[in-house]
Design a protein that fits this description.
Layout: H1 28-55, E1 62-65, H2 66-72, H3 78-89, H4 96-112, H5 122-125, E2 128-130, H6 131-151, H7 165-180, H8 188-203, H9 206-243
Antiparallel strand pairs: 1-2
Helix pairs in contact: 1-6, 3-4, 3-8, 4-7, 7-8, 8-9
Length: 244
């Protein structure tokens, strides 16, 4: 397993976005939309090229690390880390959801503190997927970014107003708790809620933030419903044993 970032910041070596002067001089809103679309297309191309590189490797070749995935994204901040942590939570590998559920808890504290990045432990940065899941991850990210370039755009800025930082931090912590709990299929909806939140903050699309709230509410209702059923079964079993 190769070394990651160590205890430093999630620094990257991939080329950064072009300066604002490279965007045609138009109205500010149009320029912002063009920048977001360019970012999505650029990321989609990077994921596609990396996917093709892994497809050419032998089946037993080592896969992609979290560190490598961050490098593909270029300059990585809290929204990128949030989205990637949530993506790793739905990888069907035992214990991964718990590890990245804790990482999401740590990240929620950084959001609460108003930090723009997170210090990644070495073991987390060097977490490695196998080749097969690396290809699936890159394909999913590439497809997602291509769709984002078509349908997503900066809108509803009130959803990212400065005062929302605290509520979003609590929201991340709640979804991370649901991911961590041993609930059957309980990590799917909260993970997609946080993926929508991270991508929405990257693109600055408030509609995705509303989607995050909807998915997270469904995840909370599912956990509550399953917990109620479980408790009812426990009580019924106890009553049966006591009656016997």
């Amino acid at each position: 397993m190769s070394a990651g970032h160590g205890e430093g910041k999630a620094s990257t070596t991939a080329p950064s976005a072009p300066p604002h002067s490279a965007i045609p001089a138009r109205a500010a809103g149009t320029a912002t939309q063009l920048g977001s679309r360019y970012l999505s297309l650029r990321l989609a191309r990077r994921m596609r090229h990396a996917q093709h590189d892994f497809e050419r490797l032998p089946a037993n070749a080592p896969g992609l690390t979290l560190d490598g995935l961050l490098n593909l994204h270029g300059q990585s901040g809290i929204p990128t880390l949030l989205m990637l942590f949530a993506l790793f939570c739905i990888v069907p590998v035992g214990g991964v959801g718990n590890v990245f559920g804790v990482a999401l808890w740590m990240l929620s504290w950084d959001v609460w503190q108003g930090r723009s990045d997170m210090r990644l432990p070495n073991r987390l940065a060097s977490f490695r997927l196998n080749r097969r899941w690396s290809i699936h991850m890159l394909h999913g990210l590439g497809s997602g970014y291509r769709q984002a370039s078509r349908w997503l755009r900066p809108r509803w800025p009130a959803m990212q107003a400065p005062w929302t930082r605290g509520p979003w931090a609590l929201w991340i912590a709640l979804q991370a708790l649901i991911i961590f709990l041993p609930v059957p299929l309980g990590n799917i909806l909260p993970a997609f809620s946080l993926i929508a939140l991270g991508l929405g903050q990257i693109i600055k699309d408030g509609m995705l933030l509303w989607a995050s709230l909807l998915l997270g509410a469904l995840a909370t209702l599912y956990m509550w419903w399953l917990g109620d059923i479980t408790w009812s079964l426990v009580l019924a079993t106890w009553a049966w044993l006591a009656g016997g």
